[in-house]
Design a protein that fits this description.
By secondary structure, the chain is mostly helical. It has 29 helices and eight strands. The strands form two sheets. It has a four-stranded parallel beta sheet.
């Protein structure tokens, strides 16, 4: 098809495009390699299977934004099907005898490609309409008044790049279809798919136009090849790899620092982040899903998980000379990626983590920056100083004498492990249910249920330490490890095998994080135990509770650990209960605002998160809000009082509701 000179030009252009693309990818590869080690190749068959399903089914893009996701899926499948078409396009430039699409296969495949090409046009034009006409906030950078740090490159690049990509993809589809139409009209094509056949009837039999559109198409392909690694569309290449490297442990499990041998604690510079989280920055598609579901951002606080990831990328590229030549960067992460107020606004609810279609790990970046601020700089909100001191001295955030930890159980026939010696279950009560007057009601109700069912259990009382959840998520790894090791030693001395927790934070910590310290146990949240007791008939519901109830999913029970059904099954087992769901429920649940240590201090910027969540509960028309977490209990109880609705809407723990409805 091409003359000898054109073939030489084509070869030269291909070599230049491949080199420029390779060079851009290689620089980014070298930058990612500067990150800290992080093993992500274990269980590779499972990882590979998950990555294939994740990429080809486009689950995450379709889940949160079905219509936008569908448009994106059209474009994605265009790239998949056009891979073979592109190879064929190049080969025909050198010799028409190298045609891949011949006979029945050619007709069927190219017919599918015609359909895909039209769908890609629909998809890309729909996405263009969304970006330039609808202009959803998630695609724009926050205003300066928001306090969110946005790198200067981030203020202009997204719009420019999107325009380039829209033009490139539109041009690719139109030039392909016209090339196909002219090939059929001039009799060059071996196969005649339906749309190409239709176009050929409208086009002249001109080899000049065939030649021109063939060149336009190949140059657009090569231009796209060079553009991809220099834009957010690098995710076309990095996305499948990031799906393979996805964090495959419960998202509530944080890494354990080697406090004795580590050269630094947490992350103060880019090179202190793991290679995986540097890689995340080149995988971000800037869709803003993480920002949309972030309770801190929604409540007007200066935190955007999206811009943490993008700021990593922009600063990596800006400091590439320092990083590649000296092995270190110059700028501190706090103040560059996120402000101090933004850093302490995170509730570690995990919504950003779970809703990211690219498997990015925003929350872990925040935790590592907090670790640096606490362990290296000793710089954190003043209220946290008091909490840390109380955790260390009294093993609870209030500084109450730990000897009174079991006082809630006086007169309730609740056995102490020190008196009993051993038990099938250890009931780990936790700080809130032990000391907080509101949430003690949960511990009292649960003890009544366990006693009624004849469960062999005991509590530690004064021997129980704080589980360490808040200390760890606030960045105080040293304090967490001290508390964890004390608890593990106590558990193991009593030969504990099974543990029931009241608090989802304790559940997550003991189940997922204590194994790093020699604490391996069967851990159950109390709603799982009550569900089991109801199924086995060990407790029975005899009293009606005719009320419309809405249930709030605790982040550390649901999103971080996947327990959604047990609380609902327990609630619906109570005669008369009408369960109504909030707009944000199950994995889409909106945080109560207490996680990540936020229970013990408050960033006084924007709205209070618990008040926003209470508004969502009130929208259901429910007369009671059911909770399964002492933190959530306290936050909803406070919100009801602040809003003046405590007489109209009651906040009740599931254990209370069951205890009241049980057969006497």
């Amino acid at each position: 098809m091409l003359s000898l000179v054109e073939k030489l030009v084509l070869t030269a252009v291909i070599i230049v495009a491949v080199y420029l693309s390779y060079r851009a990818f290689y620089i980014r590869y070298l930058l990612v390699k500067k990150g800290q080690p992080d093993r992500r190749t274990d269980n590779w068959p499972r990882r590979l299977g998950n990555a294939i399903v994740h990429v080809f089914c486009q689950r995450c893009t379709l889940r949160d934004r079905p219509w936008t996701g569908l448009l994106h899926t059209f474009v994605f499948w265009g790239f998949v099907f056009f891979a073979l078409v592109t190879i064929n396009h190049v080969l025909t430039g050198y010799s028409e005898r190298l045609l891949i699409f011949r006979g029945a296969f050619g007709k069927v495949y190219l017919t599918i490609v015609d359909i895909i090409a039209l769908l890609v046009l629909v998809g890309i034009l729909g996405l263009a309409f969304r970006r330039y006409v609808l202009k959803p906030p998630s695609l724009l950078h926050p205003d300066e008044e928001s306090g969110v740090i946005v790198h200067p490159r981030g203020k202009e690049r997204p719009q420019f790049e999107s325009t380039v990509v829209i033009l490139l993809i539109t041009g690719l589809m139109i030039s392909y279809l016209l090339t196909e139409g002219f090939a059929i009209s001039t009799g060059v094509a071996e196969a005649e798919p339906f749309f190409g056949k239709f176009l050929s009837g409208l086009l002249p039999a001109s080899k000049f136009w065939l030649h021109l559109f063939w060149w336009i198409h190949i140059l657009l392909i090569l231009g796209f090849m060079v553009f991809i690694p220099n834009s957010k569309h690098m995710h076309l290449v990095t996305g499948p790899f990031n799906a393979f490297f996805k964090y495959d442990k419960p998202s509530g499990k944080l890494s354990t620092l080697d406090l004795e041998n580590a050269e630094f604690f947490g992350a103060s510079r880019l090179e202190h982040l793991t290679w995986k989280r540097l890689f995340d920055s080149f995988t971000c598609i800037e869709c803003g899903r993480c920002q949309d579901v972030c309770p801190a951002f929604a409540s007007g606080k200066p935190l955007s998980p999206k811009w943490i990831i993008l700021n990593i990328q922009f600063n990596l590229l800006n400091e590439r000379e320092n990083l590649l030549k000296k092995g270190e960067t110059e700028r501190q992460l706090v103040g560059t990626l996120v402000s101090e107020d933004g850093l302490w606004s995170c509730t570690t609810c995990g919504a950003c983590f779970h809703h990211c279609p690219m498997s990015n790990e925003h929350m872990f970046d925040i935790i590592d920056m907090r670790r640096y601020m606490v362990l290296e700089e000793s710089k954190f909100p003043s209220e946290i100083t008091t909490a840390f001191k109380n955790f260390e001295v009294a093993s609870n955030p209030w500084g109450i004498d730990n000897g009174t930890r079991g006082d809630w159980a006086k007169g309730l026939d609740v056995p102490l492990m020190s008196e009993k010696g051993s038990a099938e279950y250890l009931l780990f009560v936790g700080c809130m249910a032990s000391f907080d007057e509101t949430t003690k009601k949960t511990a009292i109700a649960l003890s009544k249920i366990l006693n009624k069912a004849g469960i062999d259990y005991a509590i530690l009382g004064p021997e129980e330490m704080c589980c360490g959840d808040s200390a760890r998520r606030l960045g105080n790894e040293y304090l967490f490890q001290m508390l964890a090791m004390q608890n593990v030693e106590t558990f193991n001395n009593y030969g504990v095998k099974k543990i029931i927790t009241i608090c989802p934070h304790g559940y997550n910590t003991i189940k997922n994080e204590y194994p790093d310290f020699g604490g391996n146990y069967e851990v159950y949240h109390y709603t799982e135990i009550i569900e089991k007791l109801l199924k086995e008939g060990k407790i029975k519901i005899s009293k009606e509770h005719r009320e419309k109830i809405t249930f709030h999913d605790p982040c550390y029970l649901g999103r971080h650990n996947g327990i959604y059904d047990a609380p609902r099954n327990v609630l619906t087992s109570i005669t008369g209960v009408q369960l109504v769901e909030m707009k944000n429920n199950r994995e889409n649940s909106f945080c109560c605002g207490a996680g990540g240590g936020s229970m013990w201090f408050e960033v006084n910027i924007g709205e209070r998160i618990n008040l926003m969540r209470m508004d969502q509960a009130l929208e259901t028309g429910a007369k009671e809000v059911a909770v399964a977490c002492p933190f959530c209990y306290a936050m909803f109880d406070d919100a009801a009082k602040v809003k003046g609705v405590e007489e109209d809407v009651k906040v009740r723990d599931i254990a209370q509701l069951v205890a009241e409805a049980m057969e006497d």
